[in-house]
Design brief:
Blueprint: H1 14-23, E1 85-90, E2 100-103, E3 107-115, E4 122-129, E5 135-140, E6 142-145, E7 150-156, H2 170-174, E8 178-188, H3 190-203, H4 209-225, H5 233-247, H6 253-258, H7 263-271, E9 276-280, E10 284-289, E11 296-300, E12 309-310, E13 317-318, H8 326-334, E14 339-342, H9 390-402, E15 406-411, E16 414-415, H10 420-424, E17 440-442, E18 445-447, E19 451-452, H11 459-475, E20 480-484, H12 491-504, E21 509-513, H13 518-527, E22 531-532, H14 542-552, E23 563-564, H15 574-578, H16 580-594, E24 597-601, H17 634-637, H18 639-652, E25 662-664, E26 666-667, E27 672-679, E28 690-697, E29 704-709, E30 723-727, E31 733-736, E32 739-744, E33 751-756
Helix pairs in contact: 3-4, 4-5, 11-12, 12-13, 16-18
Length: 758
Amino acid sequence: MTETSSTQVTSAAAETAAEEAEKNSSTTRKGATRRRAKSASTTTRKAAGTRKRRSTKAVPADTPDALIPAPVLEITDPSQFGRINVLDVTPNEECGVYPARVELGEQFTVTAQVFIEGRAKVGATAVLHTPRGRAAASRTMTCVNPGLDRWTCEMQVGEHSDVLPWEDGFAAVKRQLGNWSLVVEGWEDSFATWLHDAKIKVKVHDSDVENALDEGAELLGRWAKTRDAGLNADQKKVLQAASETLANKELTPVERLAAADNDEIAALHDSNPLRDGVSPSRPVKLLVQRPKSSFAAWYQFFPRSEGAYVDQETGKIVQGTLRTSVSGLERAKAEGFDIVYLPPIFPIGVTNRKGRNNTLVAGPDDPGSPFGIGSTEGGHDTVDPLLGTMDDFKALVAKAHELGLEIALDFALQCSPDHPWVKEHPNWFRHKPDGTIAFAENPPKKYQDIYPIDFNADMEGIEKEVVRLMNLWIDAGVTVFRVDNPHTKPVRFWQDVIATVTKKHPEVLFLAEAFTRPGMMRALSYAGFTQSHCYFPWRNTKEELEEYLGETNSDDAFYQHNTFWPTTPDILTAYVRDNGIAGHAVRAVLASMGSPSWGIYNGFELIENRQRPGFEEQIDNEKYEIKVRDWSKADEYGIAEMLTSLNRIRREHPATRSYHNLTVLRSSDPNILAFARHTPAEFTGTGKPDTLIVVVNLDGHNAHQSLIHLELGDLGLPTDQGVALKDELTGREFTWGWDNFVSLAPWADVAHVLSVQY
């Protein structure tokens, strides 16, 4: 990752620059912007909103050409260029139709092409505007590829917050959410161009050196008077004094030039530059979403298994309820998770009910799949009486809120043959030629206990009903919906539903359980799904993981927020099956450190890794039966402790919060994967940078050694001394440099999570 230096810049209206150009008719040319190795803080300033840009009036006819600044050209059509050319601003997909999405306080990257004709140099500033059009923050960009005129910087909308939707402080968070805009302003860097030329002329005793120094005196004087530079009184005095020294012909050219070529003036050039011919790009839309939209830790359990036990007299299992599910909340809290995801809690159908391990015939004591929704007792608006009542659910939500946990409810838009909709809305289902309703299929899987919805006859009516249902559960305290198989429903349907729900409840988040083609997953993200399940469980080799980490943590993440789950009730891969405790630890480290959003399905702590023969899912699957677990055995495996440590690291380290700050590191062993996350000081809230280096042994059976290469400068680390590191998992300390030896063994340390000690 390239470390960029930032500059405090005002975002004054372009007409202000034009007025100053009229008053101060000295000229400047652009020059390569001098950058400091330090990182300066982002500045938020009051500034005029977006206005029509006016061109400057004609300057006096006798003004030397060299002293005429670049004008601000009027732009009346989006296709017109300004005086400086700005193209290809990112993030920006699908011609800007869908806004890029970031969480409040999330670090992200802005890039653009910025250039001008000839050899003149340019600068660039990225400016964020609030939904009301006020310029709220700006940052000077750095040219990272001069040959391609590519400029970049890191930005942040607001500050990270842990305030929850039901807490008093959320109103202040809510005011910062919504549709922001990003503009890249290109400008002529007149000072740097002049300084570049003047230094050469003084060095070679050029015959035109007097003109060059006089031009510099005029330029610094104009800089001191320019409102756009945002100078305070002391800074203006510095520039004015330098201007006077440049004009003092009693001094030697070397002495005169020194007044402008020094650290103090360079610092002002970094922080408060003279910007001529300011030319804005077309605005790029940003959707700023609330905390947990990107950075979240999920924990899933089935309420009917929480508190379940075997009756010693009958030998039968007594299922858990919403009241006994408090134990699941407490376990999630103890392990450091912040969203508890509950599978469907609605009544389960009887017709074609599935038995254990998805058998077609259920036994008398088989509870059925909670995804076979609906019975004579009700549908999606009813709590399964075996779990409790709506009041019991509200009490569970209240307890979760007391613990600082959000409740995510599974919304599976499908019905059992016994669902009230089958009789009330028969046109919502697809009928075969013989008049029967078709059950759900995902070949080779068949779901005889489920009727899928047919959206062709009455999509508007279905939308209204789904919005009603979601509002009912939101009123009961739900703040997140995990939607089952949304890719089997029309994207437009979800777009309409999510837009309607979030218009009234912008705090509500949506997780898509969509394991499907990339185009559909992206479309669902465009439609409003906040996060998405993804193919992380099947990315297990070093090559696969390096590619997938890069894909997840890239510009794609402005639209699709992948959440990493090692297992789910539907997924148990061969890797987790075959690599035991070490494999569980490896996948937990990769999931929690590899994505800002990750999740754990309970039982992971107990190494529940036996597959149903021929299927990538657990045998004795909890979807079809009630699990009685002995949680006291979790201490034997150490995975619960590992999960707790990983969530602590995530809370303490801002570098884990962004989808835009991961760099894969070079390692010499094919079983050792390494990557780093880096957040500059101005985005951490602590005043210090935050850097994590994660090294993982992917082999759950054998020890491996590797050299890990760090590009120290790219990570903002010192290049002339050792870097002090602390392993956040063990507390051990190390000193690293450019190339570093690592040895990891599954019976000792499967991974390092190293934090740089600044």
